[in-house]
Design brief:
The complex is a heterotrimer of chains A (169), B (323) and C (100). Chain A is built from seven helices and no strands. Chain A has 169 residues and is mostly helical. In chain A, helix 1 runs antiparallel to helix 2 and helix 2 runs antiparallel to helix 3. Chain C is mainly alpha-helical. Classes of the chains: A mainly alpha (169), B mainly alpha (323), C mainly alpha (100). Chains in contact: A-B, A-C.
């Protein structure tokens, strides 16, 4: 039952992301990426990570992508559509990508994966995904969590310093 | 057989909720015009039907039959998608709202979080509409709206954390059940005030209707829209008002749970509370002037944000010490 | 039941598409969007492993990745805006002040 939905979502993800990297209009690319994130959220639900799916929609689609659109709208998009779109190094890039793809393919081909385990809350041991995730996040991973919050603070200060207007003294 | 009947029941429920919500949303426009008219000592719509009761239907017909104009310089695909992007999230959210003890479409583990996530998508439609129209006023309205909705989403979410800490669940039905001892508005008055202000801003209502300020931006992001597409924006606005009102009464006023001693079914309580909440929304529109953009950002970040943080801190402290 | 290899393949394909966008496009915004795509490819892999082992560490790290993506978007867009202010270019090969 899950497998057809997995194929549906992954087809959506791959097609929208391929369209995304080939658009010349930046707004269209950003909107296509939002669509990709929706499909990813669906995929996360299939994998039993419903909290993460909601985070994906709330933070990625509702936050980060709106920020992107907001910044893009402040610029002149129409000029960028008419000029050359592809970088001069693209032939080297294709070569590198082929090598990378071959590498990943050969590693994946050799992989032997053991039998899948079942989530504890599907067996009725713990109350659910959100509660379990919360208890792991604030006990075992509390130090990385704090580090991430410092990273967010640092990037916030950096963004303000970079983007604010220079005041002539 | 089992899965077929289940799917059938689900479809019927969805159809009923969609039909009722669309009808109620259409009549909200009538209600708003009528209430504001009476507050301002006018009569409001009186011509179509008894006291203008058929006015929403006439309006709907008019909008449906109107010519659908797409500006020549607009981005056609995005222009057409924008109203859909506004309307769909506003209706999807109803899938997890608890209307009464037994009547709801579905209950999920991440209920409230899902509502926040889906309703945060409405801003996309507004931004898309503003950009695709290729018009100054629309773009300005969309920019304002994106900044306003992104900022106030934070306060809305943070204000809900207080009641969530008391309820201990994201499931909407469990949140209602957790309030059997007393509505959360009595334990979380600060959170409710911030939630209500943020809800006004999220739904672009007066005094925070900057994105569509008629007097300065003509009509903001939907200046270039006409016919059915305009109707979509209009419907979405009222559907969103119903959603935030429902979230408000579910988290702070006990949802379908009534006052003990008065025997009324849960659904009636729900409708009564919802009607009161929506009346307050309309009442505010008739009473308050509009905020300026910098004032809006200032009260958001300098006043409401510290307030919600203090509220979360105090709730946690009290819960840790006394509960 | 979805086998783990499906998740890993999808993650790899997504990562390659994102890498192609970063390496081959000139537009700064598209490059930033492609980086988001690559971060999401990592998330898919993390979720796949998390599901395979029934271990929540993968999901926790996916949340951290989303937080890092938010940082990256903020700083990236700030750089973009300051670039756009000085001279209105949006192409990476024209930004060569640090190049010899």
């Amino acid at each position: 039952m899950e497998l057809p939905f997995f194929y549906l979502f992954s087809a959506g993800i791959v097609i929208t992301s391929l369209f995304m990297i080939t658009r010349s209009n930046v707004i269209h690319a950003a909107l296509l990426l939002v669509l990709t994130f929706f499909f990813l959220a669906g995929l996360f639900v299939l994998a039993g990570a419903e909290f993460l799916a909601a985070v994906q929609v709330l933070i990625y689609s509702g936050g980060i992508m709106v920020l992107y659109l907001f910044s893009i709208m402040l610029m002149n998009v129409q000029v960028a559509v008419r000029i050359r779109q592809w970088h001069r190094q693209r032939f080297f890039a294709i070569l590198i990508l082929l090598v990378l793809g071959f590498e990943i393919w050969s590693v994946l081909g050799k992989g032997v994966f053991p039998k899948m385990k079942v989530w504890p809350w599907k067996l009725g041991a713990t109350p659910g995904n959100v509660e379990a995730l919360g208890s792991v996040l604030y006990t075992k991973f509390v130090f990385p969590f704090e580090v991430v919050s410092i990273l967010l603070l640092a990037s916030m200060i950096g963004a303000i310093v970079l983007a604010k207007k220079k005041i002539d003294s | 057989m089992d899965i077929v009947t289940e799917a059938l029941i689900a479809f019927i429920k969805i159809a009923v909720v969609l039909a009722v919500v669309s009808l109620v949303v259409a009549y909200l426009t009538y209600l708003e015009r009528k209430i504001i008219a009476h507050i301002q000592m006018r009569l409001g719509p009186m011509r179509v039907g008894w006291h203008g009761l058929l006015q929403p239907i006439a309006d709907g017909l008019k909008l449906f039959l109107k010519e659908d104009i797409i500006p020549a310089k607009s981005d056609k695909i995005v222009f057409i998608l924008a109203p859909i992007m506004v309307l769909v999230p506003a209706f999807v959210v109803y899938s997890v709202l608890p209307f009464s003890e037994n009547f709801y479409i579905t209950q999920v583990n991440i209920g409230l979080f899902l509502i926040l996530a889906i309703s945060s998508l409405g801003v996309f439609g507004i931004v898309m509409a503003g950009w695709a129209s290729n018009s100054k006023y629309s773009l300005l309205g969309a920019l304002r709206s994106a900044a306003q909705m992104l900022s106030y989403e934070i306060f809305l979410g943070f204000a809900l954390i207080g009641p969530l800490m008391l309820a201990g669940s994201l499931n909407m039905q469990k949140i209602v059940e957790a309030q059997s001892g007393g509505w959360f508005v009595f334990y979380q008055p600060l959170a409710f005030i911030v939630f209500f202000i943020a809800a006004l801003a999220e739904t672009n209502r007066v005094p925070f209707d900057l994105p569509e300020a008629e007097t300065e931006l003509v009509a903001g992001f939907h200046t270039e829209y006409s016919g059915m597409k305009f109707a979509f924006f209009f419907l979405a606005e009222y559907a969103n008002i119903m959603v935030v009102s429902t979230v408000g009464i579910t988290l702070f006023f006990g949802g379908w749970m009534g006052i003990p001693g008065i025997p009324l079914p849960g659904f009636v309580w729900f409708v009564l509370k919802l009607a009161t909440m929506i009346f307050v929304f309309i009442w505010l529109r008739a009473t308050l002037p509009r905020y300026r953009y910098d004032q809006l950002m200032r009260i958001g970040w300098k006043f409401m944000f510290p307030l919600v943080l203090i509220n979360i801190f105090l709730t946690g402290l009290i819960k840790y010490l006394f509960l | 039941m979805i086998p783990l290899s499906h998740f890993l393949t999808l993650g790899a394909v997504l990562f390659l598409i994102g890498a192609a966008g970063v390496l081959m496009r000139r537009n700064v915004i598209i490059i930033l969007l492609s980086i988001e795509l690559m971060l999401n490819a990592v998330n898919v892999t993390l979720i796949g492993f998390s599901r395979q082992w029934a271990d929540l560490s993968g999901q926790v790290f996916a949340i951290f990745v989303i937080a890092v993506a938010a940082c990256e978007a903020a700083v990236g867009l700030a750089i973009l805006i300051s670039l756009n202010r000085d001279k209105t270019v949006m192409n990476v090969d024209e930004v060569n002040l640090l190049k010899w």
